Automatic annotation (TrEMBL):
It comes from the Bacteria. InterPro entries: Aminoglycoside_PTrfase, Kinase-like_dom_sf. The keyword Ribonucleoprotein does not apply. Residues 40-244 form the Aminoglycoside phosphotransferase domain. It comes from Nocardioides anomalus. Keywords: Transferase. Pfam families: APH (PF01636). GO terms for molecular function: transferase activity. This is Phosphotransferase.
Length: 295
């Protein structure tokens, strides 16, 4: 997305967020953008406004909202829904803001993952089935060669993607299947004075619980976090994913999702350098791993 088109999109989204707050009868002072991705996410002093694209799957959105409401009914720590509606054709939800008091730790992530898997074991609400390809297929199809990713590199990358998806589809998972969050990382955990809360249910599904464990592991393997961080996570969750043989294939598939997301960002020099680093991970597997950087 070009800088001009993104700026125009943000301006329109801000206007819609203001209207959503008016619908919810909530003050709009201090409204500002905090995330521009699958949803446009805005904050005020005491609310969070999430705007989905007009073509977003409304059934999926309702499943996300239903699960969040159900989780709160089971005393699971997550945000409280204040309002749900549609503004100018775009689905919108307004949530109570969680007042953060500190950054989340790996112990927080593990505790929430374990509790989420435990409490949802008897959840009978509608959820999509987990699909290894997920949004990756669409993103990869939309990719075009440029000055960083050549046509040859893109073809190789798609071959790696197809190989990984086929590998993961044939994997024998060992943890019980059930509802999965799909995106457990520090950005989706907020800690207030009562403890950590899990938010953002965009990628919920029914599938292998291992998928919820692999992203925290990526922090150690790909981003260079201390191995002790993962040991803390594994101990608090009660299972070390690295004891399961196919974890490397699952990690590499998760890494490709992270890489494809990076390509949706505006191409600053910092983003371009990170694209090169991550591309080498897939196309030069024998080379020493250069640690990834969070963008």
């Amino acid at each position: 997305m070009s800088g001009d088109s993104q700026s125009a999109g943000v301006a329109r989204a801000e206007s819609l967020a203001l209207r959503a707050l008016a619908q919810a009868e909530r003050p709009a002072e201090g409204l500002h953008l905090v995330r521009w991705g699958t949803n446009a996410v805005f904050r005020t002093a005491d609310t969070v406004v999430r705007l989905a694209d007009s073509d977003y799957d409304t059934d999926l959105l309702q499943q996300q909202v239903d699960l969040a409401i159900w989780l709160r009914s089971r005393a699971f720590p997550t945000a409280r829904l204040l309002h749900q509606g549609v503004v100018d054709g775009q689905p919108v939800t307004v949530w109570e803001r969680i007042a953060e008091v500190r950054e989340p730790t790996m112990a927080d992530l593990a505790e929430l993952a374990r509790r989420f898997h435990d409490v949802t074991a008897d959840y009978d609400g509608s959820l999509p089935e987990w699909e290894p390809l997920g949004r990756l297929g669409v993103r990869m199809d939309q990719m075009e060669p440029d000055r960083v990713i050549t046509e040859q590199a893109l073809a190789q990358l798609r071959e790696v993607k197809d190989h990984l998806v086929n590998q993961v589809r044939d994997v024998d998972f060992v943890l019980p299947r059930g509802p999965i969050h799909g995106d457990i990382h520090e950005g989706n955990v907020l800690v207030d004075s009562s403890g950590p809360h899990l938010i953002d249910f965009d990628r919920i599904a029914r599938g292998p619980r291992e998928w919820d464990l692999v992203e925290p592991l990526a922090g150690v393997v790909l981003f260079g976090q201390d191995d002790a961080e993962w040991l803390t996570f594994a101990h608090r969750y009660g299972y070390d994913l690295r004891e399961w043989g196919p974890w490397t294939e699952l990690l590499k598939l998760r890494a490709m999702f992270m890489f494809s997301w990076l390509l949706t960002l505006q191409r600053t020099p910092q983003v371009e350098e990170e694209v090169r680093t991550r591309l080498a991970y897939f196309l030069e597997p024998e080379a020493p791993l250069a640690p990834w950087s969070a963008i």
